[in-house]
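Attaching the record inline, Q. Sequence:
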Amino acid sequence: MNKRNIYRFLIFVLFFIPLFILGMIYFTCIHEYNVHMPKSEIDKNRMISSLDIYMVYIKSGSFIMGSKNDQFSMPLHKENVIQSYWLSKYEITQKQYQEIMGSNPSKLKNELFPVHCVSWFDALKFCKKLNDREMRKGRIPKGYVYRLPTEVEWEYAAKGGAYSLGYKYGASRFANLAGWFVDNSNGQIHEIGLKKANELGLCDMTGNVREWCVDIYHKRNDIMGLYPGNIIMGESIVLKGGGWGDSKNYMTPGSRLSNSPYGTHMTLGFRLCLGPKLNIWKHIITIKKEHFDREIKHFKKILIPLDYFSKEGIDLNEEEAQVLVKDNQDNIKSKKTTIKTDIKMNSKE
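Structure, as predicted:
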């Protein structure tokens, strides 16, 4: 081999091979592919035009819920999403909340910021009022209602639904691209839609504000899902997605937090779901005996009827509360009996 051929070989080895290796690294570790949704599904997206709420169609399917070796998530297990549904492209903004509720509880005011400092009950009331308005105008598909998503619906959508690419942080394998969290938020909420959308076109599924789900929080998923069964006990509500003040450990779609349904922290917001009616759904939050003086005043608000959209608001009168308690498990009956007895004893004293 003459010198010229040797030089050519060395140039190839020193230049083209490293370039090839860098290219492989880019396409396997850095480059992120875009999913092109079928037009037939894009055409099913909806718009609440009066509020500028864009609803993304989520096709039914099955997926692996939870995360492997993640203390903040459920164990890996299969979940089936039986019926298709819609989820708002962005978190509900302050402008949209103000339009429906006539007030804006957010601490940091900006029309394009997600509404925050909203409790779970505030989010339910927003859904109820929106439902009443849209139903009167005949703009809701039969058998569907506006409500909060179940945890299964939320996580399925955050992971990209039927088009998931399996990115760790939902929209991206990089937390900085997926959403706002403690390392990039500068200690505050940001406008919606500034980060990368996921495979379905949903934005801010991870980061910015934690999002209320409809489910009572449990460590296991054996009694939760698209159709939560009977009465579920618990003291807090599921939150998904992490927020601007959380570490990136909470930025994965599988990550879950919880809060009191009365919580109104700056990190709490929500996203709208147009989904099948949860006709067999009702909740009860365990009343702690030592706190009955404070909790008993709100007891009728904690019990929610099977179909809270059929009621005027979400409050129950005492008779309705008694009916639900009678339908409940014996241990819950005894808890309420104990609380009532304590109240009577205190009144005698």
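The longest strand covers residues 210-216. The chain has a mean pLDDT of 75.

More tomorrow.
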